[in-house]
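Hi all, a correction to my earlier message: I attached the wrong file for p-hydroxybenzoate 3-monooxygenase. Here's the right sequence:
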Amino acid sequence: MKTQVAIIGGGPSGLLLSQRLHLAGVETVILERQTRDYVLSRIRAGVLEQGLADQLRQAGVGERMDREGEVHEGTEITFEDHRLHINFRELVGKTVMVYGQTEVTRDLYKARDDMQGTIIHEAQDVALHDTDTDSPYVTFTKDGEEHRLDCDFIAGCDGFHGPSRKSIPADKLRVYEKVYPFGWLGVLSETPPVSEELIYSGHPRGFALCSLRSRTLSRYYVQVSSQDKVEDWSDDRFWEELKARLPQDAADRLVTGPSIEKSIAPLRSFVAEPMTHGRMFLVGDSAHIVPPTGAKGLNLAASDVFYLSTALISYYKTGAETELHDYSAKALRRIWLAERFSWWMTTLLHKFDEEAFDVRVKRAELDFLMSSRAAQAALAENYVGLPYD
Ligand code: RFL
Ligand code: PHB
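and the right structure:
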């Protein structure tokens, strides 16, 4: 089997990259370890920056998002009974789109199918070879049979645990990591959301987030210890804890119901540099992870896709490799800005086992945010997404 760009991983990064390349006449094959149903059962991000929403529209995949997604002009930050409304449109003239990652992925799969894109599901034992030569290739097994995929380039869109990053020799890769001593317990429920906008709540009991997928589907999170298991959290315990961490009027309004999905995600900050080894490029979670507090994970994957697809398209049009050489540095600049913002928002709003001095400094940071329009504009500018270049 032969293609121009072999894409490992059929999550949002791999699918969007494949769609953008296909539209520019570049051939791809996607190798995905899981079944499509499994990929579509993962409940993850919900907030799309304008950059990602625009890319979906340009790729012909924005129609359902524009119909069913919700444009949010602001968000609320609360701390006990202090409330702060951040009006994105007023502060920085931009908005975000609330539309679930599951739906983005579903739309991308449909678009790839409509264009007869090749996606091989349940590809096992995917391995990368000769990535630092002009003729890299990928091997995998499917239904017990071994296959070889020759290509010009490999895009490693295979998430944090995939084989692409691991194929880079250890002495060529530098890793930066911060693991937080807590996770987020997330619940999806068929209940009307407590608020039209997201509420990020800092509280002495720990962080909580009220998000949504639609007018009838809510997504809520509470900070839990890294040791906690989903089984420790009955629905009743979850709702009680969420209420305790929200401002009183929101707690009073909250409609509870049975959870239809419940999971715990650990929080970490992680960056691997560089994002290139020879003719292999890392994209999205395979190269970097942010804690979800700033809603940046999926959006960063999308800016990587933008930079890499632009560089590959330019290579196939002109033969020039300059943009491919610059990919890692260009992507990493934006990644580190998002790492900074996600770390800052996580630190500001979560409960840590910290010294009394640090607690006071955090209170002062919140006080500054509540009282300074410049601080609010800085939050808004980062939240709606920094420019792609
Ligand atoms: P993905 O979505 O992890 O997709 C990678 C794909 O690669 C496949 N794969 C392989 N394929 C072939 N061979 C192998 N050996 C393979 N190993 C893995 C996987 O099956 C998968 O289909 O990475 P991608 O495309 O870069 O997209 C990134 C986003 O998914 C991610 O940044 C966000 O979802 C992060 N994230 C969240 N971001 C937010 O902004 N808000 C959230 O609420 C939020 N919640 C989350 C999250 C990530 C989570 N992870 C990674 C465990 C919750 C969780 C649980
Ligand atoms: C979500 O809706 O899942 C979501 C929204 C905002 C975040 C994280 C997760 O910061």
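Sorry for the mix-up. Residues 180-266 form a domain with the D-Amino Acid Oxidase; Chain A, domain 2 fold (CATH 3.30.9.10).
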